[in-house]
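ENTRY TYPE: paired fold submission
RECORD: A
CONTENT: sequence, then structure tokens
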Amino acid sequence: MDMVIDILISALLVIGGVFGLVGSYGLVKLPDLMTRLHAPTKSSTLGVGGVLVASMLMGIVAGDLSWHELLITLFLFLTAPITCNFIAKAWIARNLTPQDLPPTGTPRNWATLDLTEEPVLPALTPPGQPGRPS
């Protein structure tokens, strides 16, 4: 049974390393930001996830269970897609015009480039004044 677990841990480490290598290669070699963005967020996330799962299995086998790897994995899987989305939206807002994007099928434009009206900010009143709860 120990050999099966060792093979599983080794396979996870190799798979994690391959995903990390592919993600790093894509980050360096792809031509522009929008294509480069896909490589590290998908491949590298799976690479680090594979290494962390292997580390969790090794900790279970050694009898030293730790929650650090699980928390790092959850943090990585939650933050990488959100960061990728923010970078992509910033690139779209900076480099594209509403004419470059396809129609949405609704009266509104794309959320990133919705320039139909200025945002309305609420009026600031001091505490205790009419219109603001104390």
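RECORD: B
CONTENT: sequence, then structure tokens
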Amino acid sequence: MDESAITVRYAKAIFSLAKEKNQLVSLKEDMDLISGVSSQSEDFILLLKSPVVKTSKKVHIIQLIFQKKISSLTLQFLELVVQNNREVFIPSICRNVLTLIRKEKNIKTAVITTAQAIDEKLLQKAKKILEEELGTKVELSAKVNSELIGGMILRIDDKQYDASILTQLNKLKQEMLKAQL
């Protein structure tokens, strides 16, 4: 079976159940936590991918890691995923669940990329401006890319606004090359 079909199917299942039980807020928090652990812990990913570690041991380890941190619904869901030998898909399932929740709650995701790190106060101000402009809640995160030289790149969902110095210099270079011809 196709990986994306598996992850979407599992994501829709837990999303529907959480929505039915009015637990979308806790599900979002749980998925954020699990996604964070997945992206920050190489050992956790190795555990999920390991064919040597028995399923029962994986379930036990997942219980030890998450038992007091996530809802019982999410923990039971993780146990089910592992018992069905789909644990390698947990990070992708989390991403799909978060996408479904954002769509349900009309939450936009935005990433602002700058040449230097921006402080939290400025990030919150930008978030407030975006929420007012878009008329919806925005989850804003920041990235640093020193190659930009200055300015910023703002990506909202699948749209991008590039106001970086690097892009401006590249445009200027292209215009100068065209002028020479």
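NOTES ON RECORD B: Strands lie at 107-114, 137-144, 151-156, 159-164. The first helix runs from residue 3 to 20.
STATUS: closed
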